[in-house]
Amino acid sequence: MHMPLIKIIDHDKIWIHNQLRDLGRDIVHQENRQRPGRCSRLWSPEVTLNVILENEGTDDVEALNLEAPNQMWSFTSEEIARLVKLRFLKLYGGKLVGDFENTFSKLRWLSWYHRPAKFQVTNLKLRNLVVLKLSGMYITECWRGWDHIKEAKNLKVLNITGCEYLTRVPNLSTFSMLERLILEDCERLVEIDSSIGELKCLVYLEINGCNSMEKLPAGSSLDKLGLARLYRELSVSTGELNSLIELPESIRA
Q1: Quick one: the chain helix, strand, coil %, rounded to 5?
Q2: β 6-9/13-16 pair status
Q3: Under DSSP, is residue 11 helix (H, G, I), strand (E, B) or coil?
């Protein structure tokens, strides 16, 4: 029996076999073995951190996996400004500090894990961002970062996972292109702003693990409602979800 190298798994995620992943990494590593800052992708946290701190990054870099062993580590706009072609950034730990105007002009994918409570970024322009994942962060409805994120007019996927202090998702009307809204394991989340009904491109909503939610906003046009674990008494007005084509068995009864 032959194992596939690429396949689609739960929630439409793309899964890649480790051998294919390692092959791709080796091809990239051969771009410049002596100067990793000249490679197009940096996935090793240790190598990436050294490239940033030593200011060895170049305009060849398009993707970064940046992890800070110290949660209070600060990364400034000057340390990242040379990466003018950066399209993918995974930031785990640490924080961004300073004025980031024009720094992320080409960024399309941002995964931001465990951001400190204090937001110290100005001019975070994310005009070309398509996918944003915020995980394990100290964010609330009044978080200052929302105003910067609203610059992402082309955003199609917003994934908020494990943000335990978030009780309400704020106004989403500026994300007119949003297709997928994923809210997972936000245990204190009780409400999604009614502006979700204005998102004409939205086809997928997931609220797994958001056990404090009592009802969904009405009037949303959804093709798929991803609700794998909900209380049965949750108020879901399916009559107003005009495009709904799938309802999980957990709430069909």
Answers
A1: 20, 25, 55
A2: antiparallel
A3: helix
State the pTM of this model. 0.80
Q: Residue 142 contacts by C-beta under 8 Å, 6 or more apart in sequence?
A: none
Please state the rounded mean pLDDT for residues 12-21: 64
- Phi–psi pair at 13, nearest 5 degrees: -85, 145
Q: Give the span between the Cα atoms of 41 and 26, in whole angstroms.
A: 11
Distance from chain centroid for Cα 189: 18
pLDDT at 188: 93
What is the rounded distance in angstroms from the CA atom of residue 119 to the CA atom of residue 58?
27
Q: Which residues contact 180 (CB under 8 A, 6 or more apart)?
A: 156, 157, 158, 159, 202, 203, 204, 205, 206
Boundaries of every domain in the chain: 23-251
- Nearest alpha carbon to residue 213 among 244, 159, 174, 168: 168
SS3 168: strand
- Classify 51 as helix, strand or coil: helix
Q: Which fold has domain 23-251?
A: 3.80.10
